[in-house]
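[audit] Reproducing an earlier prediction to check determinism. Same input, same settings, fresh worker. If the C-alpha cells differ from the archived copy the diff job will pick it up downstream; this log only records the rerun itself.
[audit] input (188 residues):
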Amino acid sequence: MNPLADTPWRPEFIDALRLFARISEAMHQQGFPRPILVGGAAAEFYSTSAVTTGDFDICTTRQSELEEEMRRQGFVRPSGPGAMLKGWVHPELGLGFEVVAEVPMDGGVDAAHIRLVRPIGETALFRVISVEDLIADRMGQFASGTAPDRFEQARILLQLHPDAEMDYLDRRIREESMGDYGVEDLLR
C-alpha cells in the first residue's frame, strides 16, 4: 500500500518537497541557515495543491553553498535557447528551483512566523514563509496590477487557513499592497 496515496498534494510536489528538505537539512548540517520556500511552491504547500506551481522559489543568504548542494543532489542548470537563466532542474522532478532573494519579501517577514516543516515520509526539515506572509505576498502582487490571479490565490489560502493570525495578516497585506488593501478585502 502506498502511504502517500491519501495525501492531498500532487506526487511530484511531494517528491520535490522531500528533496528540498534534504537539501535544507544538508545546509543546516554544514552550519548554514536553511533556505526558505516562498512563492508558488509555498502557495501549493499551504493550499494542498489547490494552487499548483511549476517551480520552487527559494530565499537564501548562501546561494553558492545552496547551489553546490543542489548539484550534489542531482540538479543541473539548463542551457540553450529558452532555458531558465537563474534556475536549476532535477531530471526526475520536472520542477525548476530558483533562488529569488536573500530574504523573503525584502525583509518584511517576521522571522518568528517562518515555519519549520517535515514533509510526509521524510526526516529532514525545511523552512517556509507563513501562510499570512504568503497571502500578503499574493495581495502585493495583485495590487501591483501585474498578477490579477493572485487575489483569488490569496482568497483560497485564507479560506483554507481561517485560523490565520488576522492582526499580523492585515498589517502584512497593508505593507505589501502599499495600503491599498487589507484583510477585509479578502473577507467580502
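[audit] rerun output stored. Observation attached for the diff report: The two ends are 43 Å apart (CA to CA).
[audit] end
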